[in-house]
Amino acid sequence: MPTLPDFRLETYFARWEFNARYHLTASDAQTHSLSELLALADDDGRERWESLALGYTETRGLPALRAEIAATYDDAAPEDILCFAGAEEAIYLAMRTLLEPSDHLVVLTPNYQAAETIPLAVCEVSGVALRAEDGWALDVDAVERALRPNTRMVSVNFPNNPTGAVPSLEAWLRLVRLCDERGITLFSDEVYRGLELDRPSLPQATDLSGTALSLNVMSKAYGLPGLRIGWIACRDHAVLDKLERAKHYTSICNSAPSEVLALIALRARDHLLDRNRRIVAENLPLFAEFFARYPDLFEFTPPDGGCVCFPRYLGPEGVEAMCAELVERAGLLLLPSSIYRSELTETPTDRFRVGVGRRDPSEALAAWAAWLK
Fold it and tell me: Which CDD domains match (predicted)?
């Protein structure tokens, strides 16, 4: 396998995530403590936790967990679910297992870097940009123009990281139909689904297509990244069989405690998602008011969904310098646009990622205001 490039986001986080005083670019929603999560357990979940044996688990995932995951879809059964150690393992194995060197993939930009660099290590890849001047809208015509006779997969992420964009239902359904008509696998990263405020969530790809892959995880909308539980839902069992055999070479199986805790969380999913949507709803006016104080420095548009967004910085020194000085001098962490640089399309150089899913950003915003002053 070719050597993958440095994962820019994770390299940056390795330096700053746990050293910065204010983490204002978090991609996950507010988490729970273990005691808070266990307090949400039903009788079955509590008994599973208290009697848990710390042995190996089933490669595909705890059957009860797979059943609960399947219940989050309209048209999926437990046998349509394969669990992974977080979403990253699922992305890595899907791209490495389902693509061949003779294939071609289309991916949207800006994106979570793994969605681009992992397939680039396997086959030819084309990018289709979400553009700020178009409101980060999904351009299905551009996707169609990028397709080739050997296009095997189209990879998308909605609500999008880092822009927070969610396409119209019309555009989304058109993209699904396009992939089905061309015999192309749609890989749909849906890890922020459930954090939309003023619109319903899009139908999940696997509910719309028998060949599409829907990726999700406990980390983002549910706010439980420490569990390291993700999954792919797909009604094509030959695909899941391939991915299971690939998983034998990586994590083999998931953590037994994490599976039970994920089961407890998913049974309380309405509570978790409602709470995290409230946090985002409470935070957005605070961020809007902050950026409005500095119209010569910032352009801010709230996200359509999810808990991250991609404001613009207008200061003369540029966004890279602003982010570097902020973290080094004020201990406030943001992600500059270079983290989202694409090898495939022109991407913005004047933006930065902000996270709006954590409680009580007021102290961090005050520190940022003091630094600006």
Answer: AAT_like (cd00609)
3-state secondary structure of 8: helix
Whether residues 312 and 345 share a domain: the answer is yes
Q: Which residue has the tokens 């609960």?
A: 68
What CA–CA distance (Å, rounded) separates 290 from 154?
37
Whether residues 114 and 246 share a domain: the answer is yes
Domain containing residue 23: CATH number: 3.90.1150.10
List, in sequence order, every residue forming a beta bridge with 309; answer none if it has no partner: 354
Q: Residue 117 is inside which H or E element, if any?
A: helix 114-120
Number of domains in the chain: 2
126 bridge partner residues: 106
pLDDT in tens, the chain (373 residues): 568 999 999 999 999 989 999 999 999 999 999 999 999 999 999 999 999 999 999 999 999 999 999 999 999 999 999 999 999 999 999 999 999 999 999 999 999 999 999 999 999 999 999 999 999 999 999 999 999 999 999 999 999 999 999 999 999 999 999 999 999 999 999 999 999 999 999 999 999 999 999 999 999 999 999 999 999 999 999 999 999 999 999 999 999 999 999 999 999 999 999 999 999 999 999 999 999 999 999 999 999 999 999 999 999 999 999 999 999 999 999 999 999 999 999 999 999 999 999 999 999 999 999 999 9
Same domain membership, residue 177 and residue 66: yes
Is the pTM of the predicted complex or chain greater than 0.90? Answer: yes
Q: Which two tokens stand for residue 339?
A: 């983290």
CA 35 to chain centre: 26
Does residue 278 share a domain with residue 251? Answer: no
Domain that holds residue 105: 54-268
